[in-house]
Amino acid sequence: MFGLYSSRIFLRPFAAFLALLVLSGCASYAVVANDPLNKDTAKNSYSLEKLSEKLSGSTDTTVILAFSGGGTRAAALAYGVLEALRDIEITDSQAGDIRLLDEVEIITSVSGGSFVSAYYGLFGDRIFEDFKEEFLYQDIDGKLLTGFLNPIFWFGSTGRTEMAVGIYEEDIFHGKTFADMNREGAPLILINASDLGNGIRFSFVQEYFDLLCSDLSSFPVARAVAASSAVPVVFNPVVVETYPESCDDELPGWVANLKNREFKSSQIVAVLEELQIYIDKRSERQLLHFVDGGITDNLGLRALQEIVETAGGVSTLNERMNREQASQTMLISVDASTQPETDMDLVEQQPSVADVVSAVTDVQLRLYNRSTIDLMERSLERWTEETAAEGNTMEPYFVKLQFNDLRKSKKDLLQFKFLNKIPTSFSLSKEEVDELIKTGRELLLDNPEFKRFMADRNKNLS
Predict the structure, then answer these.
(1) Minimal CA–CA distance to 270: which of 365, 375, 190, 367?
(2) I want to staple 213 with a disulfide (CB 3.0 to 4.6 A). Which of 243, 285, 337, 372 is the partner?
(3) Burial 170-186 (b: 16+ CB within 10 A, else e)
């Protein structure tokens, strides 16, 4: 998560100032930037259904990336993984000599990781030319602080999030909308947020916007990323309006299919019950409040798992996309969470309220992440069995990258301690950013599961 579950004070340079803003009780009002559903334009909107058209045919390998939250720390680590994939050349039986990065079909992300995924989704390889300067090396915290100190802001009514959206729009995403994400050959980008009022994980794809009777095509990417990283209290929610008058009584096709299918997974049944909330309230206008995606899925993995499961499994999803099953499927989870150190056990003084809250939320985050990893591992096993039953072969590789891997070697222990102290913020030093990028590359290349994947590829080619 961007910062809610960090034991470090979020945006430390002006945390006290933010507290004053919160305590002041100044009212702010939502800015709504989504349009009613237009069925003609929605057919070509950014959706799962369009994935098969975006990707160029079947290949030997499917690569899926999941970027966690963690502010600029998460973004820099994920960027390093992208660089490593760019520099690895492989031979595909159908596509010939290509980069491993070209095999990436889906990137799912939350919070800080969404800045990287969205930028790559919009601009492709341009990310390697200017993303460091446009985002990673930028003092976003300083820009926000400057805006907060402006007297115009004190008497405004739009809130802190709108200021952040304006910075992201101008400096990073340059006014692009989800219509611009529909690049041919680009991976599907799943930017995930949390619906604060309903407690639901929400993905910015047309299928979810169909539930709101809204058109995603004209929605600004910067606003979706702001929603994905909007830490409650520190930032106001990003608000999206529903437009019941734009929908008829007929349910979206994918929802109707779900209602007619039996699911054995209690987790997926729960997801369907959550989505039913949007259907039940479809006749009334609503204002939905989206905040940090890390609240409902800090690793970005549950979005992927839910998509495959609600589609009916891997084989059904491939059939819907008119694609053959790749013989190798590699899922790379890039987890930028840290393990904060505390002196709570070394002193007689009782821990402060802030220390207790930090410790509790850190424990919750670790337990929830562990639960998500277990869920993903079980799902991969089941999907492999399902494809085998259909007469297809799918060898899964679950590559889990995290700072804790560095603790296994005395050589890397100092590097771990340095990285573990990097705060969850929007302003890191160039030294910290460069070290994170380097670590992302090294964690991938040194990972045993990734090495197994590369060895199996070479074996299959020989």
Answers:
(1) 375
(2) 243
(3) eebbeebbbbbbbeeeb
Residue 318, pLDDT score: 76
- Whether the pLDDT of residue 443 is over 90: the answer is yes
* Strand 328-335, strand 61-67: pairing: parallel
Give residue-wise pLDDT tens across range 237-281: 999 999 988 887 776 766 766 666 666 567 777 777 888 888 888
380: closest CA among 307, 329, 333, 326? 329
Q: Which two tokens stand for residue 360?
A: 């509790």
3-state secondary structure at position 406: helix
Give 68-96 as a DSSP string. ---HHHHHHHHHHHHHHHHH-EEEETTTE
Quote the tokens at residue 335.
């987890």
Q: How far is CA 267 from CA 263, 271, 274, 375, in A?
A: 9, 6, 11, 10
Query: Comparing C-alpha atoms, which of 17, 19, 9 is closest to residue 233?
Result: 19
For the whole model, what pTM was predicted?
0.89
Tens digit of pLDDT for each residue in 165-182?
A: 999 999 999 999 999 998
On the question of pLDDT at 459 being above 70, the answer is yes
For residues 259 and 207, the answer to whether their CB atoms sit within 8 Å is no
* Chain segment 297-351, per-residue pLDDT in tens: 999 999 999 888 877 778 777 777 767 778 899 999 999 998 766 655 656 666 6
Distance linking the first and last C-alpha atoms of the chain: 43
